[in-house]
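Final report, results section. Input specification for complex C-07:
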Amino acid sequence: MPAHSADDPQVADTTADTTADWAATVWDVLVVGAGPAGSSAARTAAEGGARVLLLDRAAFPRYKTCGGGLLGESLRLIPDAARATVESRVGDAVITSGFTRRMRLRSRTPYLAMVRRIEFDQALVAAAQAAGARFVDGVAVREISESVSLVTVRTTAGSVRARVVIGADGTGGRVGRYVGVVPGGVDLGLEDEIAMPADETRWRDTVHLDWGGASGSYAWVFPKRESLTVGVIQRKGAPDATRDYLAAWRAHLGLADATTLHSSGHLTQWRTDTSPLRRGRVIVAGDAAGLLEPWTREGISFALRSGAWAGEAAAAAVRAPDPLDAYAARIDAELGAEQRAGAVILRAFEQHRGLVHSLLRTRRGARYFVRFCRGDTTLARFARHRWAMRIVRTLAGRSPAAR
Ligand SMILES: Cc1cc2nc3c(=O)[nH]c(=O)nc-3n(C[C@H](O)[C@H](O)[C@H](O)COP(=O)(O)OP(=O)(O)OC[C@H]3O[C@@H](n4cnc5c(N)ncnc54)[C@H](O)[C@@H]3O)c2cc1C
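Structure output:
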């Protein structure tokens, strides 16, 4: 936490916070959750001239279950201090399907960046504070209620009022529930943080991926400076099978006995097309809104974009809430298109993972994978090729909403 002088009341030294201090203020914008969505929202709202309070239930810096893989799109969106937390740049991927049919995707220039979320998220919080937002950690939001012009939020440290509230409290969060977010799919991710093995040249700056046997599942190894994040993701509802997949993945890689520094699990969700983004003076961003790419489950770029747009809209909506509708329309136009394409590709992948693997082995497929990771193209742009989407839809067989 950066140190601040006592005569600078705008920025927070959270250890010195008293409830009465921040709870007595009527804030323009209250942001719930200080992940990438919440910190981006707090930063842009403060930059827009709003008086902003950012709350998180965890004591920061906090661990977050996440591979920490950043697409080029995410790198472009973050402040320099967050970019400085990148520990590894990857230009090499080893990909298997059911642990077989090994292929390698090498590029002379890196196409993925790796961060540890504990440092990355802390840097984003610091950027929000530097923009003027007040940050208070260790305080959980319990309940939300609204009058015509104010939102009252009950927390574990008393009630606080704001003109606009942004829910960025992650998957299954309280604000998402208040707004009525409807998940289109929910997955369970399990991860082990492993100390960098002695044969480190095999792991440095190389990503390992495997398309799993259970529909839509996959596994990864993401390298950091001194550790590897080894994880799997699979549709929620089969925790034993998900655990078995992680154990088999570690054994396949020769990492069964490697030193585990941290083991954790977390749910991810993606929204249905019509899931609400706003209720009254409350809007949602990032995982709280179900903004996540359904095929890869990449969520950081969605959190950064939706958070930044939510903050801009909230600052503009302090007097009249109209800009909050514009926020929902922007999400639908820009992120909705990517999610719709991702949902159809996920359906095709669930039924034909071997074919998807074969396509990646082609020169064109490999080039697309690298361009996608670099952020030079998006699934929304892919979806504009009608012939390609016709093929994907045929492979998908039935509507993604049926999942
Ligand atoms: C296993 C796994 C691996 C992943 N790997 C990647 C990856 O490599 N790349 C990628 O792009 N995406 C990845 N994702 C997805 C990514 O982690 C999320 O999409 C991203 O963290 C969403 O950011 P967010 O700010 O919306 O929510 P979060 O990062 O979840 O932040 C939410 C915050 O809200 C706080 N909070 C929750 N409830 C309350 C409350 N009641 N009151 C106050 N605060 C509250 C939490 O403490 C937390 O700090 C992965 C997800 C999982 C599960």
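Residues 1-17, 399-403 have pLDDT under 50 and may be disordered. Residues 32-38, 55-58, 64-69, 140-141, 168-170, 173-174, 189, 191, 231, 233, 266, 268, 286-288, 292, 297-300, 303 surround flavin-adenine dinucleotide (CB under 6 Å). This concludes the modelling results for the funded period.
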